[in-house]
């Protein structure tokens, strides 16, 4: 098997698909949260709910990245996340990548746009976490 870096637009389309899948997961997680914590007028409700969703997303991504290196969207688009040396991700790398990606996306997508200027076309969060996205070409 040979590997290459997937193109920027291929990764963007994968991100859009990932976003749609994540919406479904967050909808279900929100339903459970609202069943447990029904007092939405509490001053702690909103920050606790937001933290809960960030943790759910982090668990979703880090679990898939450390168990095969692929989320469902990445499987569909034949991409895989690996450490910079080609090995499987550690939990620390997965969590680091997730947190850097979250920050980069909230900073007007800077972490994504970075790939247009990076010498290896990697996202900023991949560069910082020591990871890379590869495409399998049978």
C-alpha termini separation: 6 Å
Strand order of the largest sheet: 1-3-2
Number of strands: 3
Number of helices: 6
Oligomer: single chain
Largest sheet: number of strands, sense, barrel closure: 3 strands, antiparallel
Helix fraction bin: 55-70%
Count of the domains: 1
Structural class: mainly alpha
Question: Which geometry do the CA atoms define?
Answer: elongated
How would you state the average pLDDT, rounded?
94
| Radius of gyration of CA atoms, rounded to a whole number | 16 Å
Uncertain runs are none
Portion in strands: 5-15%
Name the helix and strand elements from N-terminus to C-terminus, one letter apiece: EHHHEHHHE
Could you explain the architecture of this structure?
- The protein is mostly helical and 138 residues long.
- The chain has one domain (2-137).
- The chain has six helices and three strands.
- A three-stranded antiparallel beta sheet has the order 1-3-2.
- The longest helix has 29 residues, at 8-36.
């Amino acid at each position: 098997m040979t590997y290459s870096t997937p193109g920027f637009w291929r990764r963007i389309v994968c991100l859009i698909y990932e976003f749609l899948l994540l919406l479904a997961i967050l909808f279900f997680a929100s339903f459970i949260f609202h069943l447990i914590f029904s007092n939405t007028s509490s001053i702690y409700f909103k920050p606790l709910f937001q933290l809960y969703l960030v943790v759910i997303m982090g668990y979703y991504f880090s679990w898939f990245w450390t168990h095969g290196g692929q989320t469902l969207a990445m499987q569909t688009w034949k991409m895989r996340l690996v450490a910079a040396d080609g090995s499987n991700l550690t939990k620390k790398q997965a969590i680091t990548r997730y947190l850097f990606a979250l920050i980069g996306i909230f900073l007007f997508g800077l972490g994504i746009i970075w790939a247009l200027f990076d010498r290896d076309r990697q996202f900023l969060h991949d560069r910082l976490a020591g990871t890379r996205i590869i495409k399998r070409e049978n």
